[in-house]
Amino acid sequence: MGVSQAQIELTAEPHLIDLSRAGHELEAALDAKLRHLPQGSEIILLIPASLIRTRRFALSMELSRPVAYADLDELNEAAADLPGEEEGLAVLYRQPAAFIYDHAISHLPPIGESAAKLTTEFLDLSMPLRQASELEEIVTRHGHELRDIITPHEALAYRRTTEDESEESLLIHLNREDMLAVAATETGFSGAGSMAAGVRHLETDLVLAGLVSEEEAGPLMRAALSRPHTAEKAVLRVLDARLEEMAGFAHHVRSAAQGKASWPVELTGLGHKAKRAAEIFTRVLDHEVTLIADEHLRPLGQGAQEAWQAPRRISLPGGFLPGSGNALLRWVRRHV
């Protein structure tokens, strides 16, 4: 892990298995999908957001000269030696999320800046080591090889990341069972998180409030979000309470990532007509929210494929320069 500028070139085309909506039936869903693949296949798994743990930790060093790439390499190598087993976690994604030097904060490496002390905050996306081992055991039992595990946060970021988009943005996606929030910067993630509340919970809240039957919940929810002026106040109160909870969580992710209120915000999962949701997220986040219909996006599965194909840098490369492209970079991969 101490080799500077090392990149792993992977050219094979593995099978992507999307388990992001498998819920509690994760192992059974994987077992069923593997049965139909050719023997000896290489497998990538896109796992549910409910399995992901996000962690931030900091490593510091004293400086007697301007910040150099060697300093960042040293901090990255130290971070790579912290695998996560002591917490029972398998680290799927780790990268520097922020650089702090003499009270200044940057998402870009502060090369050449003079400082007495440099602190690098690292972001982890991890999953329970026990469950990662179980998934690998299932894949192996079918005679296949587990090549990678991709988080939904990576898939979300990669499906939206292009050269002509903003270098910093807050991406929010509502799945059926959960919500993802990713603070994306030019150098990767500065924050990520998920909460166990999605589109289904908006519908369930209406049912539990006695306002509608289960069959009517979906159409009523969509109608209320797209045409709030025609909806009953009781319906809006129920939906607003849940949407404010979701928006508050996204605000927490952005704040923890030291993100600015001026960052563009994109909301997907509810379609481009959910104006009531946009209004609430705009108010809570203090920034206009852009609604994007899923049909105008690459699917999460394709985002996972692009995440897998992205460069894998073991330590911060000496050739990395600010403005070198809006690409998310994974620094550390730890498999069971």
Tell me about this structure.
This protein is α/β, with parallel strands linked by helices and 336 residues long. It has 2 domains: 15-158 and 298-309, Dna Ligase, domain 1 (2-Layer Sandwich); 162-296, ATPase, nucleotide binding domain (Nucleotidyltransferase, domain 5, 2-Layer Sandwich). Helix content is 33%, strand content 24%. It contains 9 helices and 12 strands. The chain has helices spanning 26-34, 69-80, 129-141, 152-160, 199-208, 214-226, 233-256, 275-285, 300-309; strands at residues 15-18, 42-46, 53-62, 89-101, 104-106, 117-128, 145-150, 169-174, 179-185, 188-195, 265-268, 289-292. The strands form 3 sheets. Strands 10-9-8-11-12 form a 5-stranded mixed beta sheet, sandwiched between helices. Helix 7 (233-256) packs across helix 8 (275-285). It starts with 14 loop residues before the first strand and ends in a 27-residue tail after the last helix. Residues 1-11 and 314-327 have low confidence and may be disordered.
